[in-house]
Structure formats: C-alpha cells, structure tokens
C-alpha cells in the first residue's frame, strides 16, 4: 500500500457508496483502480506515467472517464463523503476573505453609460465593470478585447 492509498477503514466507508457494476465483468480490484485515480489526480502526471502497482493505465483511465461521464465522482466524493465527515465533526468550516484590490486603468471601460454607477474617481475595479466584450485600454498594454 502506497503512502496516499486508501486505508482499510477509509475503503470500508467508501465501498458501499460506489455504484454497482451493471453489465460487463466486475473489476478484480476496484480499490486498486481508485487508488490509481487518486494518485494521478494528486500528482497531476500524464495517465501513461501511472505506476504499474495500480494496474494498466488504460484501465484506470477508463474507470475515471466512465464515472466522470456518468456523474459518479461528484455525488459519491463530494456530497456523500463530505456530509458524513461534516456530521462526524471532522470538517472545520473556516472562511477566508481575500482583501486584495485589483485596480485597472481609468480607460478600461469605454462605454461610460453602462458603468456610470460604478465610477470611482479615476479608477475602476476590474470585478465591477460589466462591459465585457468592449475594446479596452489596459495600463501599459495595447488595445485588447475583454
């Protein structure tokens, strides 16, 4: 078992949430395949570089894509497991607010009629200008499309 692989306890929680195999033959070791998917997502390497211990990369990729098309990953991993962990008090919900302000040049929005209520002295907040698709001058750059 690798460092990031599922423990027996984690697998016992995850296994009942996985979809039942319908047609076709059942994989010998779905746990190994899921560990392979988790390893690949965690490391970000190409599928072909998947270690042999997780099985052929084509098989692991096939499981990943099939479940992605069927929408298995979101309900199983995000909804079910997250709700279970939250109920057990294993998730600490903290909110971080980023107070970074990103200012743009005053000529960013050329159509003042659509953004007149957003005028702030001589500067515009890039997240507040609703003139997407208009030509704009950005400080220090040539004319470009938003």
UniProtKB/TrEMBL annotation:
Domain of life, per lineage: Bacteria
InterPro entries, per database record: IS402-like_dom (IPR025161), Transposase_6_like (IPR052909)
Pfam families: DUF4096 (PF13340)
Ranges where the Insertion element IS402-like domain occurs: 6-75
Residues annotated as signal peptide: none
PANTHER family in alphabetical order: BLL5188 PROTEIN (PTHR46637:SF1), TIS1421-TRANSPOSASE PROTEIN A (PTHR46637)
This protein's name: Transposase
Species, as recorded: Streptomyces sp. R33
